[in-house]
Amino acid sequence: MSSPASPAQTICLTKAAQVVRPPEDGLPFLRHDRAAELRFDPVPVTIAGGTIAAFAETDAELRIDASGCAVVPGFVDCHTHLPFAGWRAGEYELKVSGASYEEIARAGGGIAASAAALAEAGDAQVLGQAKSLADEMLAWGTTAFECKSGYGLSAEGELRALRLADELDRLVSQTTVSTALLAHAVPPGYSADAWMDEVESLLPRVADETDATALDIYVESIAFSNQHLARLGELAADAGLALRCHVEQFTGNRSVPVALEHGARSVDHLACLHPDDLEPLAASECAAVLLPGAEFMAAERTAPARELANAGAICALATDANPGTSPLVSLPLVIGLAVRRYGWTAGEAVLAATHNAAWVIGLHERLGSLEIGKSADLLLLDAPIEHLPYRLGHNPVLAAFRAGELLYVRADTAARFDV
Amino acid sequence: MSSPASPAQTICLTKAAQVVRPPEDGLPFLRHDRAAELRFDPVPVTIAGGTIAAFAETDAELRIDASGCAVVPGFVDCHTHLPFAGWRAGEYELKVSGASYEEIARAGGGIAASAAALAEAGDAQVLGQAKSLADEMLAWGTTAFECKSGYGLSAEGELRALRLADELDRLVSQTTVSTALLAHAVPPGYSADAWMDEVESLLPRVADETDATALDIYVESIAFSNQHLARLGELAADAGLALRCHVEQFTGNRSVPVALEHGARSVDHLACLHPDDLEPLAASECAAVLLPGAEFMAAERTAPARELANAGAICALATDANPGTSPLVSLPLVIGLAVRRYGWTAGEAVLAATHNAAWVIGLHERLGSLEIGKSADLLLLDAPIEHLPYRLGHNPVLAAFRAGELLYVRADTAARFDV
Lengths: 419, 419
Prior knowledge:
Two copies of one chain form a homodimer.
Chain A: E1 11-14, E2 18-19, E3 45-48, E4 51-54, E5 62-65, E6 70-73, E7 75-77, H1 89-96, H2 101-106, H3 111-120, H4 123-139, E8 142-148, H5 155-171, E9 175-183, H6 192-209, E10 214-218, H7 226-239, E11 242-247, H8 256-261, E12 266-269, H9 278-283, E13 287-290, H10 292-297, H11 305-310, E14 315-317, H12 331-342, H13 346-352, H14 355-360, E15 378-381, H15 387-390, E16 397-402, E17 405-409, E18 417-418
Parallel strand pairs in A: 1-5, 2-6, 7-8, 8-9, 9-10, 10-11, 11-12, 12-13, 13-14
Antiparallel strand pairs in A: 1-3, 3-4, 5-18, 6-15, 15-16, 16-17
Helix pairs in contact in A: 4-5, 5-6, 6-7
């Protein structure tokens, strides 16, 4: 279809069964103990000039009949490893049959395999795969997402990965941000300490040559330590970049206090979070990024997400899209896994995949919630949000807007658009 | 697009990366200890007159470039509860937050809620919902499926449900069969014994007025007993209908020996299968129908699927699509859940969702495997089958054929069709 909505148009969505909005306090996030304050009243939504202009009916160039539908913010995928090259499906088959990480590494698997694939692939090939995944993510309702480097495993490799992320931003329909995951695995020929020296000398080029807004590290027995996390925290503060970290995934390392001490924006995974670290995390402005897709696919423990939410943490959900531990890109599926594993409500899950996810990637002022003046990034879903986790695998997205522009519409939905 | 393929056409699929075929012994099923004998060699596939005519290149009216793709049999969903009315999303939210079955029942949930919804809904409404789900199933690759009654909960209600299943068969693109699940829950006002008397007197009308080919029963502490299963087995034998049964789902009842004694075609669920019943089941021609979607959504135990496969059982996979315990319709998702939970290979899962599923519903002579003379029910997938469980939530179906007719094609796939 020719696009019936451009950012300049005035659009009014009417008759929705639910419009999901935060309470009226204008905070940059909503702590999960306040999720019950989400508002669901079926107000009309008017978009003008690409932003949310009013929650009232107005004269509009385009009217959309949202009967029976939910209107929610566009999903924000705040933890992905795009762009990457190729897949590791064979490794997954070994993994589910019980092969150990060592066996998989010996069979040529793991991060090293994806690093080799990235090094071998041309830029166009990497971008083509990532663009195709971004299109798929859009069809599942993702209107903003994070990219990470991390498969470069050399100074030049990491810079190339970040440049590819910047190029991807120009290719895709979504808003993106990029994170320099400079400490993902210890590159061959380095000790972890020596690689951190390399990271330090790399940082000026990251700042000059790329659009990265955050630094990231993987703290795990097979990767980096809490000492390295502390060092990266200092480097991030010096460089004016946000600090993020992969922590407590397969083993408990008490990394969360270190992350909090260094003002991390997020701690991601948390399947092995130490009970004593839960309250301090919940009291902080550091988000708990939960990745139930990775938990399921990599057979991790379940993060204490119910407890984090009850304690008032800023919880976020993401796909962790990557070719190893979480080769999935659908946030509705992640919401389904989260609700089942965590005992969350649909509202808690939607909050975690929108408003709080926008906080994680630093775009909370622009997007992530349906508030007047924010970018009109929103989805029309085919049913109230309680159906999102319940109809596991179903795609409920009828239409996706970013900045008031209709980016995606399901084929059977055209009749709702009265141009 | 106008349909480029009609049953009369000769079609040739060439250059596929994989074509999934059984060994050449022509058996009506493939026991899972022989799954490694599946053949994957990339032969051309020629379709003529709606059937598979040759595994060789031929002159064809339509040539399809299957480069990089897998060609697999159309998925057969051998256990669904279609047609049903409405959904029970609110109940699911109670369930994940830890509400007991009793609490859910008191809140108006459970089978009784779906029975009330079915009774209140007009035929057109029920058929409209089921047709919409069937279309969604087709887009996920399901070219044949089973329907069940069971939400009638009265003699007339069950007959209506079976008549609706027969009408649905005429509405949908897929091949369907219907099963009379006459003993699903004990209807209000009856004892289980008294309801079985009613079932017995209902059977002549089921045979005369409906197309049902099987009888089914739910054996569980809250439903029917092994004695009722034995009685239904005798009734099925007398009526010339197949016997199927929901057993060992939430509690262990040692129902499998009773089912085997009565020549059941399948035993479904099996999360609580007794270890002593595994070998006799595996040695029989009774299929083990595994429902990992229901296991996940209803927080059941995991069926001993790896052990059943190793012991040579005829394993099948299905969605159990229903508004209570398993509101999902995607067999690729079920394959993903199965491989992760069961430690199965992708080949084992595809076998269970095609060839052995066709055996369960008695259509094994016509469909379920890529063999010469069988109906050309097949799928073009966008990658080798190892990607099916690995890319959880992704829809790999580029095109779906039933009896040589192109029923579904993904929008970006047209270039592969050289008409």
